[in-house]
Amino acid sequence: MPASEPVDPKDRPARLTVGVVGAGRVGPALAASLQLAGHRPVAVSGVSDVSRRRAASLLPDVPLVPPAEVLARAELVLLTVPDDALPGLVEGLAETGAVRPGQLLVHTSGRYGTAVLDPARRAGALPLALHPAMTFTGTSVDVQRLAGCSFGVTAPEELRLAAEALVIEMGGEPEWIEEEARPLYHAALALGANHLVTLVAQSMELLRTAGVSAPDRMLGPLLGAALDNALRSGDAALTGPVARGDAGTVAAHVAELRKHAPGTVAGYLAMARTTADRALAHGLLKPELAEDLLGVLAEGDTR
């Protein structure tokens, strides 16, 4: 018998109607990914012109309506608003009676687990916390990047399978995070991803000041290799003057940064001290070289 033809997602019966409250960079991309899995986006809310244009691009023909109307139309609702706005949004939706019993209510905050959804849970909602560990651009490329993306998942035990199934349908990999560990989990991601952007941007600015015409091209291979080595080997991948104990080189760095970019000195010193501590602990930095190095770093703080 000939092999059966794959069924296009558009031709499959939709399993859940999907709504998005908060058309930032995350919500429309997740809804578009769920649409590819056979679900049906039916409503989205957005305040700014930028968010409305983003929703129109990623979710064409899906109507823009107020948040309460999103909940009225959808069986699965994505709450994709900034962390600080989430508690107030949930309380407001619950108090106004917008939440319906049996409705899947999903937030994408890294900081919170499901406790923040308690007002909606008391109204009968089914609470899920699904945080994609990825940076978003607000464009269609985000849908492709979800393939293989890890999600921090927190949910009541009886909803765990449902939460993990939704992540898998979006192409992601579920990683279970306990409720009390969510702030630490989110801090770890921010430390790596958010601070990395700051460090790279500062590095490019300094290279331009040094006369490098294409700092992005220079840094690309170097940072790519450093990231790959760090993910493979952890602290064993440490290289550079701090790990080697080159106190004179570090002193020259600090002097040049004070002259050309004084705003970067505090960050350089803090990261250098942390790097030295980790290099010492892992036997990369020799104790006899560490004393002079740490002296340079201490002196850098007093100037």
UniProtKB/TrEMBL annotation:
Residues 149-274 form the DUF2520 domain. Residues 11-132 form the Putative oxidoreductase/dehydrogenase Rossmann-like domain. It comes from the Bacteria. PANTHER family: CONSERVED HYPOTHETICAL ALANINE AND LEUCINE RICH PROTEIN. This is DUF2520 domain-containing protein. It comes from Streptomyces formicae.
